[in-house]
Amino acid sequence: MSDTRVALVTGGSSGLGRELVAALAGEGWQVITDGRRETELTEATKGLTGVRVIAGDVTDFAHRNLLVGAVRGAGRLDLLVNNASTLGPTPLAPLAQRTVEDLPEVWRTNVGAPFALAVELLPDLLAHDGVLVSISSDAAVEHYEGWGLYGAAKASLDHLTLTIAAENPALHAYAVDPGDMRTPMHQAAFPQEDISDRPEPVTVVPHLRHLWTVRPPSGRYRAADLPSAEPTAAPA
């Protein structure tokens, strides 16, 4: 079995996912990643060593099976980052203007898919002292007009992630609020605003790296509260 660390990062075609894939690949990890738009995903990972891209929608059962198969083919899983996410219907609107028919898209992407991957790959993570990271949001604990569906989904993701941790004490599991970032999804939430004052997602990566290098107790964290960790050398 190879000593090369293996990570699965969903949503690697843009934003934080793209930066995580690039950072991990640069540190010698083997990275499996996906994205709904094949051209964008291929462009985002061009030139990166050790990255396998699997285009598709994480809410699709057959696509998730491909991701799991890629992990099993790699022979191990050290890190699962459930990063793929969606705002749901845009422009954002108050809950009184939404219906139950608006729930499935948000729920399948932000809750169902990451939960399914975490459960399916739990044995692989436990076998290699692995780390589960679910990318959350401050909307999971705060209440912002228009963000109700997204926030409720992220709150559910937090709960599921940390319940898995409680049920599996050997697992290192984290729900992490990365903070506001200059990403396409954030721009979609504020279509008429200049978001150039938001930090680039690459600035969040060193704080997330703290989780799988230092491994604090499982729990919910704000990336801004985590120390910055330097890249670790790949195994010889």
The gross shape turns out to be globular
Total number of strands: 7
Content of β-strand: 5-15%
Average pLDDT confidence is 92
How many H/I helices?
7
What order do the strands of the largest sheet run in, or round the barrel if closed?
A: 3-2-1-4-5-6-7
Backbone structural class: alpha/beta
Short overview:
By secondary structure, the chain is of the alpha/beta class.
Layout of helices and strands:
Layout: E1 6-9, H1 15-26, E2 30-35, H2 38-44, E3 51-55, H3 61-74, E4 79-82, H4 103-127, E5 131-135, H5 148-167, E6 172-177, H6 184-189, H7 205-214, E7 219-222
Parallel strand pairs: 1-2, 1-4, 2-3, 4-5, 5-6, 6-7
Helix pairs in contact: 4-5
Q: Tags for this entry?
A:
Rossmann fold, alpha/beta, globular, single chain, seven-stranded parallel beta sheet, 236 residues
